[in-house]
Amino acid sequence: MTSKSKLIIAIPLAIVLLGVLSMYFLWNPTNYSFFPKCPLYALTDIYCPGCGSQRAIYQIMHGNFIEGLRHNYLIVLLGVVLLYQGVLFGMHKLYQKSLYNILHRPLTVKIILVLILAFWVLRNIRFYPFTELAP
Amino acid sequence: MQVFYTFGIINTTNSSTMETKPQRPSNYLALAIVSTIICCLPAGIVSIVYATKVNGLYEDGRYDEALKASNNAKTWGIVSIVLACVGWLIYVLIFGVAFLGAVGSHDF
Are residues A99 and B9, on separate chains, in Cβ contact within 8 Å? Predict the structure, then answer.
């Protein structure tokens, strides 16, 4: 792909992303019914690993980090991975340095998989202290 | 500069051994994590499972299988994100229009 055609895709994507983020900034998903519910939860009554991320994004954008994290602790993982990839990408683009990416280590990926699966199982146990993990 | 050394710059001295290897396929882990946490679909988990296989296969020298796992990780991640985006858009359009209609019909 040429850099021009990349830009043609990237710019509208960035605008859409900003638009969606500002929706989550303006309206609290807890109070407005037009935000989608988790399809898995709606069908099966099982929380998925992503449940609560809409509320978490709203709270974190309003500076309530703890409140946001309590809706979905995996947001931390998402933030760290995206930041890490972003830094690596920036290093590569700006300084032509290719750094060793720890996300490419088989062990790292396995730990992340186990972490997400464990989180998924534990947040569906409906008594204290596991209810803390529920959205 | 310290950051370069802690994470380790790719070692250019093994370039002679690198030549025989095809390029390491991406495991699309970031894509997989985004699709799992944002999209609420089990397809994201499938993507992570494929992502776990890529580098192990690559290091075992099974390059074709590694590439296949990489492509699967990418496909499942993208499918998950596209499905979620389409679903999200339909939901917001239907209920957002209903919401605006309800707001508009009230006399303030």
Answer: yes
| CA B93/CA A18 separation, integer angstroms | 18
Residue in B29, B59, B98 nearest the CB of A109: B29
User: How many Cα atoms sit within 13 Å of A65 on the Cβ side?
Assistant: 2
Record: contact B33-A38, CB cut-off 8 A: no
Tokens of A22: 């500002």
What's the complex ipTM? 0.79
**Claim to verify: residue A27 and residue A40 sit in the same structural domain:** no
Q: How far apart are CA B64 and CA B73, in angstroms?
A: 14
Q: Residue A72 is part of which domain span? A: 36-133
Reported pTM: 0.77
Q: Both A10 and A44 in a single domain?
A: no
